[in-house]
Write a structure and sequence with these properties.
CATH topology of one domain: Glucose Permease (Domain IIA)
Radius of gyration: 37 Å
Distance between the termini: 136 Å
CATH architecture of one domain: Distorted Sandwich
Helix content: 10-25%
Largest sheet: 10 strands, antiparallel
CATH class of one domain: Mainly Beta
CATH superfamily of one domain: Glucose Permease (Domain IIA)
Order of helices and strands: HHEEEEEEEEEEEEEEHHEHHE
C-alpha cells in the first residue's frame, strides 16, 4: 500500500472517531436535559397566616353596619340573629312573643333592597283596618294558587308553619329582617323555607294559596316592628310602582294608632265641610281602601268583601244604589 493510501485511511478513521464521540455527547446531553425536566420541582410560595386576637376582631366588628342588603353581600353568618340589639326574644312558635314598650322616639329604618312579596300583582282584596267585628292587621293581595311568594328583605326565618293548615294563618312564614322589621306571609299552599334559615331579598319562600281561615285564594301580608303591625300602605306604593315610597322609613308612635274606619271617614267629612283640610285629614282620606271593579262585581258584593255597607260605598263615591259599575272603575271603601 502506498504512503498516500495509508494516510487516507488514517484520516478516515480519525474522522469517524471524532464524529462518533460528538454524537454520543449530544445524546448524553439530551438525556440529561430530559431527566432534569422530569425531576425539576416547583417550589410553592410561602403561605402567610394572619392571626387576629379578640381585640382585633372586636375592632373589625365594631365598624360593621348591617342593613337590609347585607345578606346579599354575605355579611354575617348562620349564627347571626337579625336585630338582636332591638329584640331580646327569638321564638319559632309565637307570632308575637314581644312585650316591649311603645316607641316614643323617631326610628330611622333602611328599606334599601325592598321587594314586593309577589311576582304577579292583581289587586288588593282587603285593606288594613277595621273589618266587621275585628281589626285586620295586614293587607290581603289577590293571587292565583301556586303564585310565587318572595321575601321582602334579607333576614332569618323565625317561623315556618307548614304542619296545620287549619289555623287562622294556615301555612305561613314570619321573617325577621336586619333593619328590625318583621314580615308575615299567610295562607300559603306550600312553605319552602325552614325556621332559622337565612334568606335574601327576593328569595322564594313559598307558594301562595288558600289555607287557614280564608274565603278565597289570597296572600295575607303584614309588616311589624316589635310585634306591632304597620299599615303596608305607609311603606309601599300600591297604586303605581309597587315599590317603597322611600328608601328610608321614619317610624313614630303614630304608625301604631289603629282607628276605626268609621271614625276616619267622619273626621274627613267634618274637616272638609268646615273647609279645614289638615295633613292628618288627607292622610286619613288617602288611607281608605280602593276596590277595582271586575266582571261580576256589584255594590253588594263589594260591600260584603270589604266589610262595609252599600250606603257607605254610595256616600264615599257619590253614587246611587242602582249605579251601573264599569270594569276597571275604582270604588273607595
Amino acid at each position: 500500500m502506498s504512503k498516500l493510501s495509508r494516510f487516507s485511511v488514517i484520516v478516515l478513521i480519525m474522522t469517524f472517531t471524532v464524529f462518533t464521540g460528538y454524537a454520543q455527547d449530544k445524546k448524553n446531553n439530551i438525556t440529561n436535559t430530559k431527566t432534569e425536566l422530569k425531576v425539576k420541582k416547583i417550589e410553592p410560595e410561602p403561605i402567610v397566616i394572619v392571626q387576629y386576637g379578640e381585640e382585633d376582631v372586636d375592632e373589625i366588628l365594631s365598624g360593621l353596619v348591617i342593613d337590609s342588603l347585607d345578606l346579599e353581600f354575605g355579611i354575617g353568618g348562620d349564627d347571626l340573629i337579625p336585630a338582636s340589639d332591638i329584640y331580646s326574644t327569638w321564638s319559632n312558635i309565637e307570632v308575637n312573643p314581644y312585650k316591649q314598650d311603645l316607641i316614643t322616639d323617631t326610628i330611622t329604618i333602611s328599606l334599601l333592597g325592598f321587594n314586593f312579596p309577589l311576582i304577579k300583582f292583581y289587586r288588593i282584596n282587603s285593606e288594613f283596618g277595621q273589618r266587621r267585628r275585628r281589626y285586620h292587621y295586614g293587607i290581603d293581595l289577590k293571587i292565583e294558587r301556586g303564585d310565587t311568594v318572595v321575601s321582602s328583605l334579607g333576614g332569618m326565618v323565625r317561623i315556618a308553619q307548614s304542619k296545620n293548615k287549619k289555623t287562622g294563618y294556615g301555612y305561613y312564614v314570619v321573617i325577621r329582617h336586619f333593619n328590625g322589621l318583621e314580615t308575615f306571609y299567610a295562607h300559603l299552599d306550600k312553605v319552602l323555607v325552614k325556621p332559622d334559615q337565612m334568606v335574601t331579598c327576593g328569595e322564594v319562600i313559598g307558594l301562595a294559596g288558600n289555607t287557614g281561615r280564608s274565603t278565597g285564594p289570597h296572600l295575607h301580608y303584614e309588616l311589624r316592628y316589635q310585634g306591632r303591625p304597620i299599615n303596608p300602605r305607609d311603606i309601599i306604593d300600591f297604586d303605581s310602582t309597587l315599590h317603597v315610597k322611600s328608601d328610608t322609613l321614619l317610624l313614630t308612635a303614630s304608625h301604631f294608632v289603629y282607628p276605626k274606619r268609621s271614625s276616619r271617614v267622619s273626621q274627613a267629612k267634618k274637616s272638609t265641610s268646615t273647609g279645614a283640610i289638615t295633613a292628618s285629614t288627607l292622610d286619613n282620606t288617602e288611607s281608605l281602601g280602593i276596590w277595582v271593579v271586575k266582571s261580576g262585581d256589584t255594590l253588594g258584593r263589594i260591600a260584603n268583601k270589604t266589610g262595609t255597607s252599600i250606603n257607605k260605598l254610595c256616600t264615599l263615591n257619590g253614587i246611587t244604589r242602582n249605579k251601573l259599575l264599569k270594569i276597571g272603575q275604582k270604588i273607595k271603601y
